[in-house]
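Note on ligand handling. Small-molecule inputs were canonicalized before submission; formal charges were left as drawn, and no protonation-state enumeration was performed. Where a ligand contained multiple stereocentres, the stereochemistry in the source SMILES was retained. For zinc ion, this procedure yielded the string shown in the input block below.
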Amino acid sequence: MPAPVAGRGWRRRLRREALALLGHAGPLVLVVAAAWHLPLPWNPFMPLDVRQPAGPLDRAKLRRLGDRPAACHAFLESAGQRFEPLPDRAVEAGCGWRDAVRVGGGPGLRWSPVPLTCHSAAALALWQHRVLQPQARAAFGQPVQRLEHFGSYACRDVAGTGRRSGHARARALDVAGVVLADGRRITVSSHWDGPPDAAAFLRALRDGACASVDQVLSPDHNAAHRDHLHLEQGGWRACR
Ligand SMILES: [Zn+2]
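Structure output:
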């Protein structure tokens, strides 16, 4: 009776494979269960949260927001950003944008609204919460109330090259300076080599940005950046 034997063999094989699968999946189930209970900054299942201390997974979480517009908008909302989603601008000759927002600041902080990819706006939101405002409070005992900038979107090349700038895809913001709550104005052009407190503050903004922003270029990079910090999300990494 070959048929029943074959049937029993098939069932035995299925049982064996199911057990083997469980054997392989068991450790994974344990790892997932353990990770679920990790503290928030270490927890891969928890979304990025500006109120949490920085964690080792933040960059990966930020990167994932780059191709998840709904999650990115939710993150900007949770970070108190003033923004509205923008329709895509068809990319032609290397210029245009996808998944962008018009953003004009965050809690207690304003700037002239600009189009930025949501991914870039998210990196800036993280920078505001974890670097800009804490550094301002530490250095001057007050928050920044206004960010001054030279704009975000511009259909142009990187100066002196034939390569499109991150500005051509609304991925970058050129930060020129800040105005503190008491009205004191600190700019890269006037204070990078200015009074020690302001110069140290501007360097702390640059250095701190490197934790969340992919490309951070300051006057230390070249003369084209003598009066601003170029903060760009996406593409190659730089911090100088
Ligand atoms: Zn720039």
